[in-house]
Design brief:
The protein has a four-stranded mixed beta sheet with strand order 3-6-5-4. With 171 residues, the chain is α+β, with helices and mostly antiparallel strands. The longest helix has 16 residues, at 116-131. Strand 4 and strand 5 (146-149) form a beta hairpin. The chain has seven helices and six strands. The relative contact order is 0.13.
């Protein structure tokens, strides 16, 4: 009978783990805090796909201008990015959207594209990056049209660009 009961950790042991700077939990906490503080550090934890669908770490393949663009997005309210195709900017947008949603509670991020299927593809990239984040990532509910973070009250939604997009929403 006693073997069936769940084992709970002593609260003092949990606190001691967090206070010990060498504990795995303390290391994860420091890693999470650094990633939440700077989008470029967050991007170094991201994994993306190349044009053949192979998973690669963004830290290994990201160009300096891509990290600079992420930093620019983090400090400006509005940015117009003129670009050529196939430069990885949609992966940057996925990384930035995810960072925005999980670093502060109550964030609502809309991924708007001309058609719903294009917006869903971008949300798929966000889900791909999320699934490969380290253990410090928050719990998420991932669906085809949204990713919700119930513990922090944030969400990411994909929507088509229509006349009434975002109406009655605060974003």
């Amino acid at each position: 009978m006693l073997d069936v009961l769940p084992r709970y950790r002593n609260p003092f042991a949990i606190a001691a783990d967090r206070l010990d700077p060498n504990s795995e939990r303390a290391q994860l906490d420091r890693e999470r805090e650094a990633a939440y503080a700077d989008v470029r550090t967050f991007a170094r934890h991201a994994h993306i796909q190349d044009d053949q669908g192979t998973e690669i770490g963004f830290a290994k393949v990201g160009w300096a201008w891509q990290f600079a663009l992420l930093a620019l997005w983090a400090v400006t309210k509005l940015s117009v990015t003129l670009k050529a195709r196939q430069l990885g900017v949609s992966w940057l947008a996925a990384i930035y959207a995810l960072w925005t949603a999980i670093r502060r509670s109550g964030q609502s991020v809309l991924l708007i594209s001309l058609r719903q299927d294009d917006a869903d593809k971008l949300l798929g990239k966000v889900a791909y990056v999320y699934a490969r984040l380290p253990a410090w990532k928050p719990r998420a509910l991932v669906s085809t049209r949204s990713i919700r973070f119930p513990g922090i009250g944030s969400e990411i939604e994909s929507m088509p660009a229509t006349e009434n997009i975002g109406r009655s929403r605060t974003v």
